[in-house]
Amino acid sequence: MRIKVMKFGGTSVATPEARLQSAMRVVSAREQGFSPVVVVSAIGRKGAPYATDTLLNLLKEIDPNVEPDPRELDLLIACGEILSSVIFAHTLKTLGHPAQAFRGGQAGIRTDGVYGNARIIGINPVSLFRSVEQGYIPVVCGFQGVAVMGDGAPGGELTTLGRGGSDTTGAAIGAAMRADAVEIFTDVDGIKTADPDYVKKAPTLRTVTYDEVAEMAHLGAKVVHPRAAEIAMHHDIPLWVKNTFSDEPGTEIVRREQFPGRRVTGVSHTGKLVYLQFDLAEASEAHRTTLETRIYELASQHNVNLYMLNISPSGTGFAVPRDQYPVVKDLLDGLVVPLDEGGRVVYLFQIGPASREVETQAKLLGPLGEIRRVRAALTEGTTMVSLIGHEYMQQAGLFHAVLKTLADNQVPVLQTSDSDFSLSVLVPESDAHRAVRALHDQFGLAEVV
Amino acid sequence: MATNPTTIGWGGETEFEKRRGVSAVEIRGGFAQAHVSHLEGDLVQARLEVLKAIGDKGISLDFLKLTPSGLSFLIKQSECDALEQVLTEVNAHHSIKPSRAIVLVHAVNIRDEEGMLAAIMHAAMSSSAKVDHISDMHDRLLMVVDAEDAERLRAKLEESGLGGSHAN
Predict the structure, then answer these.
(1) Are B94 and B80 in contact (CB under 8 A)?
(2) Where are the strands (E) in A210-288, listed by range?
(3) In chain B, which residues have their Cβ closer than 8 Å to the Cβ of A231?
(4) Contact A161, A220 (CB under 8 A)
(5) Is a pLDDT exceeding 90 seen at residue A334?
(6) What ipTM describes this predicted complex?
(7) Confidence of residue B3 (pLDDT cuts 50, 70, 90)
(8) Contact across the interface for A415 and B135, Cβ inside 8 Å
(9) Helix B80-89 / helix B43-56 crossing angle, nearest 10 deg
(10) Of A380, A320, A374, A286, which Cα lies nearest the Cα of B118?
(11) What part of A 416-435 touches B (C-beta under 8 Å)?
(12) Rounded CA gap, B24 and B157, in Å?
């Protein structure tokens, strides 16, 4: 039995014509001797009648101020994939190929109990194997599973897998069924060297490693989700990204031993971030540690996500997602930390320019001791642009090449971060296009295939 | 190892995804930390001049961070003398701390797990180890400390429930 898992994204199942094209690809795989197992996303993207966002709006329309229960929310948004799987299975049936639709739980996908962002903990694919053996093409709902209860038995609680969940489903089923290949079908020709909206002529990569694609996906490339790449890597399942609507060969994702060599792979961008740099130069060494501890304690207690962390003798800094910035401002702007230093010292935090409230607070605190301001320089509207590469990031002179390229193109760099496979810079969002294009040109990515 | 899936066979169950949370805390030694400060004039150009001089000498640096008046980064301990020479030649105010260790905290999708980086930083700051340098990636946080403090920092992370399931 040669299993091929074929995952179709929203645009590939959006219209009857698109579904027919997708279904014909499944039929073609079957005619080539494969036993196809299909995974589908919800029909259409944002704005489409059964798309996830549309379903979410059904609740928001009732009262936007009341947060839906995560359990109920998962039940609602899973409907998009259920509809899609039934419609896709019926499309196959009309082409003379019997098919069976499966919810995630029916396909044996078990998850932890985190609604809205569950992780797969196991798959028992027995129902899918049975379906294939009986001559059907299984069509599985992406993005969903069933939570395991405390005693280890499936409890029937539907969960969704979070962002990129359908890719994750495809890769996980491929691994569980020991598939010959997992193919992720989308509306672009494969994985590009950059977002085509930013670099029109960004070429399609013919081959890329799991590590590179996971790094690209984590740093903003949207073609395949990093969880899917990681699952395929751990289980050694060949993974492809292909275009439903063209006959381009797509991108093959392989192990690093299969595609060795030093190279730059692409440039990605992600995030709507706000950057904060705290000036602690006025604090004594002992006080500094206390102040830094307090900053991170509050951020931790309020579940703030941090990016681009840094620490130096003059202070500490980080970026936060734009939607979390109001929380950070509430927590830290006007925060008072009284400490002793031979006498009373009162540290008063100030985010950006001093507000009237902070100035009033400073006056009120005056009698308590010496007031020292902890000012945080604030840069709103920033984003992360990353250069991805293989065996490339440890090259002497790379930081200079990247920062000089950006300086020559008048792109200010606020902070940097690097790993084995990437070098990221935090830049103003308004300069992100220019930064991506400049790095794409500088590192010769137009020629990459 | 929790992150290393195993297939149990036909019809069996497979452990698939890396579990959320800290999976491991790893210590790597043999580094030095350089801090260049008080750069004068156009800060962007001054940083570029320092980086060019370092690159021209073939010194590979890691985990570069921009600081308000300069930059901070790591090099291999064996390159301390070469770096000292370069920074002196370009007349850059600097300090190089040898015998640094990197404490790496591994956790899948660490930046997007709510409050996780902040929690690790809080634990680290609460320890008696002085953290000289930090950097984050999508799957790990790196903290640079004096080599003698590395184990103490790891112990503090473990005590805070952030030690991972298989710390080495």
Answers:
(1) no
(2) 239-243, 251-254, 263-279
(3) 16-17
(4) no
(5) yes
(6) 0.87
(7) very low
(8) no
(9) 130
(10) A320
(11) 416-419, 422
(12) 10
